[in-house]
Amino acid sequence: MQEVNILCCNFENNGFGDPARRAKMYKLLAELEPHVLFRQEMWDAADDGSGIAYEMEHALGLRCWLGPESCTALLVDTKVFRPLKEWPCTGPMWTQPPTALTFQYAAAGPAAVPLLLVSYHLNYASSALRTVEAEWLTTWNDQKWRGGDGPAVPLPAVFGGDNNSFPVPGSEGDPAVPALLEIEDRPHRVHRSRVGAGGTRIMDTCPDDILRSAGMEDVARHVAEAKGERAALRPTVHASPTHGPAARIDRVYVSRALLPAVASAESVDPAGLSDHHVLLVKLDGDALSEILCAEGQLRKGE
Length: 302
Description:
Layout: E1 3-10, H1 19-31, E2 36-40, H2 47-60, E3 63-66, E4 72-76, E5 81-86, E6 99-105, E7 115-121, H3 127-137, E8 144-145, E9 153-154, E10 157-162, H4 186-191, E11 193-195, E12 201-203, H5 206-213, E13 216-218, H6 219-227, E14 250-255, E15 262-268, E16 278-284, H7 285-300
Parallel strand pairs: 1-2, 7-10
Antiparallel strand pairs: 1-16, 2-4, 3-4, 5-6, 6-7, 8-9, 10-14, 11-12, 13-14, 15-16
Helix pairs in contact: 3-5
């Protein structure tokens, strides 16, 4: 099986301005042999002529696209995924704008349908803004691709990011959504909850519901349920006195058409380098080629 490795990494405050800390994170990421890396909290990467963005490119051997306001980034092995189009207009409501591009999977050939890759970071403090941002994310699972004179076909997508909210309960082995009072910090209770029926505060699971309702699937949940690998559902943030119990805040979503290509998913503890774990999702490259080529044949009407 030809593997395609996709990583998602919220590197806390981009290493706090510490070159040694960044170097340790780059080493960890490089050891996971990424072909795609969704990054969040890219603060200061655009400073001084984007020096830190280039530093990361050189350390990982990937090309870096730095999103608006240096909030998110997308790093890609361009021998594996050939860039076709940037999406600089990400919608009006983003506090931390995403980075989105269309790529051709090289192994699938030029006749195959491309796919969208989107790195995102939902709002930290407002469930209302997270809802709007998640709704805007769904527009990247609503794009069409037209090649030649054939009909347009859906453009599949892969999203990776920090959701600052919880998955909808229902998958065995998923960390339990915390009770409101398990979060000791009173402002953070507000940050992670919303007002429900009767004015009672409930924990925020709306972004997950929105994305899955729009045809995206949480790959960790899929691996746990379809393959029985419950370890895929391990938390991505540890328990803390202020934020409450360990939770699965960081997630990778794919369009449903891509699910047959999902081989595995895991949460990698960065050993104190960040407050978020690194997600590693492996795709079966051969299966990915078959899916994208089949979509290409549909486009031709064959």
